[in-house]
Design a protein that fits this description.
heterotrimer; A mainly alpha (133); B alpha/beta (299); C mainly alpha (256); B: alpha/beta; six-stranded mixed sheet; 10 helices; elongated; C: mainly alpha; 12 helices
Chain lengths: 133, 299, 256
């Protein structure tokens, strides 16, 4: 169910993992209360560092998407996160569509737009760098 | 992760004839980490490993493994009791069969894991009665890996573990390494010139070039710190020496000034705005970018 | 299991040496008749004088008895020379030769000291050479009755002892050279040259006669006077010890 993260993308592996879990929750592949794979088995399966999986799970817990039950494992958090997520995704997609159309209207190419977005995200990560452990 | 350093080396120097293999190399490998030692061929990786294992003696500097001095004979034997090494050539005995090699090796390690040996023998599909000289490179690597993983060693040291292997076998090797690390009791230290595998499984990295460590730290930190800052000017880009620290390299091409920074990109950008560029673009770098940029034109 | 490994590494050389010496020992026994017939002829030839003549007379005199014959053919020539050859061959090998492809790095990554590795290698070689020094000679004792002769076990033991103790120096010399040079043939070749040179030394300085290698190894003084060549044996034992210590020092200082 979870695909191999791609280290060459420039996006940290733990972020890719988090995105995959969020996507799975959003599409209903993972439902509230269902258990996620254990940290070590998942690391072995994806052939990535166990600490990376641990970090992704911690962040997901921080965002309220999963809960880590001591001794039992990681479970998808109960609550209406699924619907909230779907709503936010739709709103986000609309916003991005508008922005891209506007920038294209100004004569910017798709490559330029992509670079601006990445740079902005990188800049954003730097500013909040202290928060992420 | 524990604060303990399994490997702690400072200012290592080693000269072979006219060649300076190590020029003041420093290294700190935390216990429980998967540590990637990245560098081009001839950068000093193998020499470092040999110093740690007591196979070669440094001209200067200190090397400690488990807190023991790697340059002292008796301490070195103690270190090797708790360490497993896989050489680049997957060096084994031509004249011994697979089973004989397993039996031979197990006699040196009281903590030998027979159960693991049986399991790996099965999963790696090793032919018990075939002699070392008749094994393919992939099979030899798997045998070398089995011999390393079953010793109950606290530290695995591997020199280019996946060199010469096809992608499927490479992945088996990496998977075995990932599954070996278990809390802060086991550490994996491997040298490589393949950035992809370091990216994939390592949580710490050192990039070594010409006998010196030029990039060091937790992989996530390294990726977060390094930035490429591109400044475009109206006329030709000015020659500038930045006051802000963290500038690794800066080069000009017509109207574009590009700065590679290892830290403090914000401060550099602030300083750069003072030069009135037309645009400022900050982009993150992949490990491959960082590697290529930092070793390509070192001084 | 280091001993087992050392055995695997030297097994072929040892077995070939043993087989070769067995065959040669049989040869010594069964050619006795032929040689016996030639002795009167040799004696008369020896009268013609010159260095060669002296040598021929000397050999004829000694070979007139069975005991002397066995000594001359076996302990002085066949066994002595062949055994020395195998001392050179068995001394070759070790970590320095095995480099990156021969398993040296693997061995060096094991929790064992280089001194111990050398000790096991030397011990195995010496044990094998001890067998080669005594066992094939027993064949002569066992087969002699078939031609109506007898050869005492006591002689086998004494001559074997002289051969082994004195000849061990050749082995140790080869081992020493093997820690200096990384190729397969230089150590044996150099040791051979040293052996040949010291052998020729007795012609330049006759006072060295009691100490030279081959005369000590063959136990000549025991045959002629019933006295063991103590001086030569002592020199050899001392040389062996010094050479092994030097080899150990070489090995411990080497960068692999």
């Amino acid at each position: 169910m979870i695909f191999r993260p791609n280290p060459a993308l420039g996006v940290p592996i733990y972020l890719q993992l988090m995105e995959q879990v969020k996507h799975a929750v959003e599409t209903g592949a993972l439902r509230a209360g269902e258990q996620l794979p254990g940290i070590r088995p998942l690391a072995e399966q994806l052939v990535i560092n166990p600490n990376t999986v641990a970090k992704a799970y911690r962040e997901l817990e921080h965002e309220g998407i999963i809960e880590l039950r001591h001794g039992a494992g990681a479970f998808v958090a109960a609550g209406a996160r699924t619907k909230d997520l779907a709503d936010r995704v739709r709103a986000g997609q609309a916003a991005v569509r508008q922005m891209v159309e506007r920038l294209r209207a100004r004569g910017l190419s798709d490559d330029e737009i992509r670079r601006f977005v990445e740079a902005e995200l990188a800049g954003l990560n730097q500013a909040t760098g202290g928060r992420r452990g | 992760m524990a604060d303990r350093l399994t490997i702690d080396a400072t200012d290592l120097r080693k000269r072979y004839g006219a060649v300076d293999a190590l020029c003041g190399l420093a290294l700190g490998v935390p216990a429980g980490s998967i540590y990637g030692f990245l560098g081009r061929n001839g950068a000093g990786k193998t020499t470092t490993l040999k110093v740690l294992l007591g196979m070669a003696r440094p001209d200067a500097g200190e090397a400690r493994v488990f807190g023991l001095d790697a340059t002292k004979e008796a301490a070195s034997v103690d270190i090797r009791r708790r360490t497993a090494f896989v050489s680049e050539e997957k060096d084994l005995y031509d004249y011994m069969t697979v089973d004989e090699m397993i039996h031979f090796t197990s006699s040196f390690y009281p903590r030998w894991r027979k159960d693991l040996a049986a399991r790996y023998r099965r999963t790696f599909d090793l032919p018990g009665d075939r002699k070392g000289k008749a094994l393919s490179r992939g099979t030899r690597t798997k045998l070398a890996l089995l011999l390393a993983l079953c010793r109950g060693a606290e530290l695995l040291i591997l020199d280019e573990p996946t060199s010469g292997l096809d992608p499927a076998v490479s992945e088996e090797v990496l998977q075995a390494l990932v599954s070996y690390v278990d809390s802060a009791e086991t550490t994996v230290f491997f040298s490589s010139h393949q950035i992809a595998e370091v990216d994939q499984i390592a949580d710490h990295v050192t990039i070594v070039d010409r006998g010196r460590a030029i990039v060091q730290g937790a992989l996530d930190d390294v990726r977060a710190r390094y930035r490429s800052i591109q400044l475009v000017f109206d006329g030709d880009a000015p020659a500038v020496t930045f006051r802000a620290p963290g500038v690794v390299r800066a080069w000009r091409e017509h109207r574009v000034l590009t700065v590679l920074s290892s830290a403090g990109a914000d401060e550099i950008v602030d300083e750069a705005r003072g030069l009135n560029p037309v645009s400022v673009t900050v982009t993150p770098l992949t490990l491959k970018d960082i590697f290529l940029e930092t070793v390509m034109k070192e001084k | 299991m280091l001993w087992y490994k050392a055995w695997l590494e030297t097994r072929s050389r040892f077995v070939i040496g043993l087989a070769l010496l067995f065959v040669m020992a049989c040869g010594v026994v069964f050619t006795y008749r032929t040689v016996q017939e030639l002795i009167p002829l040799a004696s008369s030839l020896g009268q013609s004088g010159g260095a060669l003549g002296r040598l021929v007379s000397e050999s004829a005199a000694i070979e007139s008895t069975y005991r002397g014959y066995v000594w001359w053919q076996w302990f002085r020539q066949n066994l002595c020379q062949t055994w020395t050859l195998f001392a050179l061959l068995l001394g070759t090998g070790g970590l320095t030769l095995q480099g990156t492809r021969g398993g040296a790095l693997y061995t060096l990554s094991l929790p064992t000291s280089r001194t111990r590795l050398l000790a096991v290698r030397a011990g195995t070689g010496l044990a094998e050479l001890a067998v080669l020094a005594f066992i094939p000679s027993i064949v002569i004792t066992l087969l002699s009755p078939t031609i109506g002769q007898s050869y005492s076990v006591g002689d086998v033991l004494v001559h074997g002892l002289c051969l082994f103790v004195a000849g061990a120096a050749v082995f140790c010399l080869t081992v020493f050279f093997s820690t200096q040079f990384a190729d397969a043939w230089s150590p044996a070749l150099l040791a051979l040259i040293v052996v040949v040179v010291q052998s020729a030394a007795e012609f330049v300085l006759p006072t060295l006669r009691p100490y030279t290698l081959f005369r000590t190894m063959s136990g000549e003084s025991y045959l002629l006077d019933g006295a063991l060549p103590w001086a030569g044996l002592l020199v050899s034992v001392t040389a062996s010890a010094v050479l092994l210590l030097a080899a150990d020092r070489n090995l411990r200082r080497r960068d692999f």
